[in-house]
Amino acid sequence: MNCYYHEQKDGQYQCEVCGKNICKECTHFEDSKALCKDCYVELGSNNINHNYNKFWGGILSIIPGAGQMYLGFMQQGLVIMLAFFGIICLTGNGISTPIFPFMIAVMWFYSFFDAYHLRNKINNNEVINQNPLFKIKSSYFAYGFIIIGSIMLINQYVSDILTFSQLRVVRSIIAPVLLIVVGVIILLRIKKEEKRIN
Q1: What is the pLDDT of residue 132?
Q2: I need a surface site. Which of 28, 35, 82, 89 has the fewest CB within 10 A?
Q3: DSSP states of 99-130 as a string?
Q4: Structure confidence by residue, pLDDT tens digits, 114-169
Q5: Is residue 54 part of a domain?
Q6: Do the domain assignments include residue 1?
Q7: What is the number of structural domains in the chain?
Q8: Domain of 123?
């Protein structure tokens, strides 16, 4: 098999994270594990906290996203935390859907056990590859704040214009639209990651 990055060279090694065949020039070793340059950069950017305190690691895992942040997975923790508390804030502003309580519960359990498994992987010196779903550009956070701010603004001032029944209809539409937008973004990111690997 030829190297993923240099077709003219033999792939002497295989990345233990993504499985790419790589030549000696493209191989980076992390704790005796062979990594391609892309995975090596991703792992280096995680800033994994290998000397974490077990007590605080467990306590902070109770707060969605905080456990991941404490272990060094800042972006992953930030996304989980924003999603969890964002839904709670939307619900508090009257923008809700029957699926929101279910989503809140699922996100809490996912965050708790994700942090638990991350701690185990760190303890076992395993190679940890960041989930592509949490690789979010900074511009997406900006768009998210703009959308949330717009919703809060509309919720504050439109209530004085519309009747109560009309306001309920508007609020009931916002939540499904947000879910559709988030779902489309996630699907696009998954397809993009699959194309990059293949």
Answers
A1: 55
A2: 89
A3: HHHHHHHHHHHHHHHHHHHHHHHHHTT---PP
A4: 999 888 888 876 666 666 556 666 566 677 777 777 777 766 676 667 676 776 77
A5: yes
A6: no
A7: 1
A8: 47-197
Is 19 inside any structural domain?
Answer: no
Kindly tell me if the per-residue pLDDT of 73 is higher than 90: no
**For 155-187, how does the pLDDT look when each residue is reduced to its tens digit (9 = 90+)?**
667 666 767 677 677 767 777 777 788 778 777
Single-letter code of the amino acid located at 88: I
- pLDDT greater than 90 at residue 97: no
| DSSP states of the chain | -B-SS-TTSB--EE-TTT--EE-GGG-EEETTEEE-HHHHHHHHHH---TT--HHHHHHHTTSTTHHHHHHT-HHHHHHHHHHHHHHHHHHHTT---THHHHHHHHHHHHHHHHHHHHHHHHHTT---PPPGGG---HHHHHHHHHHHHHHHHHHHHGGGTS-HHHHHHHHHHHHHHHHHHHHHHHHHHHHHHHHHH-
